[in-house]
Amino acid sequence: MKRWIAAMGILLALLGGCAGIGGGKTTDYDALVRETLAREYTFTAEMTYDGTETKAFIAKTGVADIQAEFSAPSSLEGLVVTTTGEEIQVTFRGAAVDLSPYTLPTQSALTLLREVLTGEKAGKLTTQVDEETVTASGSILLTTYEIVFDKETMAVEQVRIPSIQGEVLIHDFTFTSEGPGESSGQ
User: Fold this and answer.
1) In this structure, what are the phi and psi dihedrals at residue 102, rounded to the nearest 5 degrees?
2) Could you give the strand order of the β-sheet that contains 126-129, starting from the edge strand earlier in sequence?
3) pTM of the model as a whole
């Protein structure tokens, strides 16, 4: 009888240990997507929009602040578009112009990219997880979009906006702010 009780104890311990290893904790990718998009970061973007190809260095600072510095095509080289809250400043070849967000078309590539990266996402995203990526899908400004993240690092890898035949391939993605639970000592 003592052996049977001891064997049951070992069996329960093994089963409990296995449950803790494989099935105990699941990752909330919906929360990770929102946390990632709320952070500050930079990246190089190769953007395709209705057949037009551009390249820009993008910096997201603050809640809804984006700066895009274009390097291609040559006709846009040096163009800098900065959005801060409800203000937009365009600088090109020494000239600076302040614009209202209502001046830009809501379906422009830059407007949509800004909204995808900084817009309110609570309850509006569907998240799909596979072996290497996390894809968040949603809609904003009357169009749908997908954001593809690296599953391990949550770095943004790609943004797709099908309604405008828009695709943003992201290179050199770097977080410039700490995420929840991180500190500079880690």
Assistant:
1) -75, -10
2) 95-99, 87-92, 80-84, 65-72, 52-61, 41-49, 166-175, 156-161, 143-150, 133-140, 126-129
3) 0.78
On whether the CB atoms of residues 78 and 135 are closer than 8 A, the answer is no
d(C-alpha 142, C-alpha 130), whole Å: 27
Contact (CB, 8 A) for 55 and 44:
yes
pLDDT digits (tens, 9 = 90+) for 158-182: 999 888 888 999 999 999 987 665 6
Burial class from Cβ neighbours inside 10 Å (0-12, 13-18, 19+) for residue 132 reads exposed
> In terms of Cα–Cα distance, which of 153, 135, 152 is closest to 144?
135
Query: Are 69 and 76 in contact, with CB atoms under 8 Å apart?
Result: no
Within a 13 Å sphere around the CA of 108, how many CA atoms are in the beta-carbon half? 9
pLDDT in tens, 66-110: 999 999 999 999 999 998 877 889 999 889 998 876 777 666 777
Name the token pair of 145.
């979009």
